[in-house]
Structure formats: structure tokens, C-alpha cells
TrEMBL record:
Coiled coil: none annotated. The lineage of its organism: Bacteria, Bacillati, Actinomycetota, Actinomycetes, Micrococcales. InterPro entries: Universal_stress_UspA, UspA. It comes from the Bacteria. It comes from Pseudarthrobacter oxydans. It holds the Pfam family Usp. Belongs to the universal stress protein A family. PANTHER family: STRESS RESPONSE PROTEIN NHAX, UNIVERSAL STRESS PROTEIN UP12. This is Nucleotide-binding universal stress UspA family protein. Residues 3-134 form the UspA domain.
Amino acid sequence: MSGVVVVGVDGSPSARKAAEVALGLAKSLGGSLHIVTAFDVDRSETFGVGSDEVKVWNSEAAETVAKSLGETRPGVEISYFAARGKPADALIKEAMRLDARLIVVGNRRMRGIGRLLGSVANSVAHNAPCDVYIANTYDD
């Protein structure tokens, strides 16, 4: 069975863990991995010394994770996309656009007060056009 596995990242260790799980699932399914990052406003930070400056945009998180995952497990096609908007909405839209087989999200903010305030995983699980896999991204 093949298909696209979509995962969202934001640069956090929790998101990295979810992306690693998604990569394993994509490989097992004989599919590809599509990494999505969402942002409300495209912000940037400038780093540098003297006249050497590098601008880092928050929309580059998906590209960074995609490249590093591609190096660790070759053989899986990996693509990435940066979308303006809320994370859950971006994941759902990309899954619909790609006719994805699966969306992988981490379980961050699904405990304690986060459950009351809502989480990306909860929103995706209730509105996804495909199956949803909630990866355990807690350290404990």
C-alpha cells in the first residue's frame, strides 16, 4: 500500500519526534513523506558577525527537518511546504491537496490544561480527510 504521509513541524523536539515517526510510517507503507510548517506571520531573524549576515525565516522549519530526515533514512521521497495559517488548518489543507493517506501529529498539549485549550492533534483528528496517527512525543 502506498500514499502520502503528512506531518507538521515547528522546530520543537516534540515535532521532530513526530516527523521521525511519520518517516518510519511512510517507509513501511511504501509511500512518501510531506513535511508541513505553518506560520501566522513570516518573521525572520538576522544572525551574523561583521558584514556576514544570514537571515533565517520561520517558514524554513519544514525544509530544515526535511533535509535532515532525508539524510538519516534515504529511500523515502520527502517533500516540504510552508503554509500561512493555523497549524491544524495547514495540515488538513495539505492532506486534502495531496489526497494523503495519513496525517501524523504529536500529542503535545493533549495533557493537563492543554486539553482544555485545544491542541493541533485534537483539531486534526476531528477534521482530517484521512486517517490520523497521534505519535507519543512526550519524554516520560
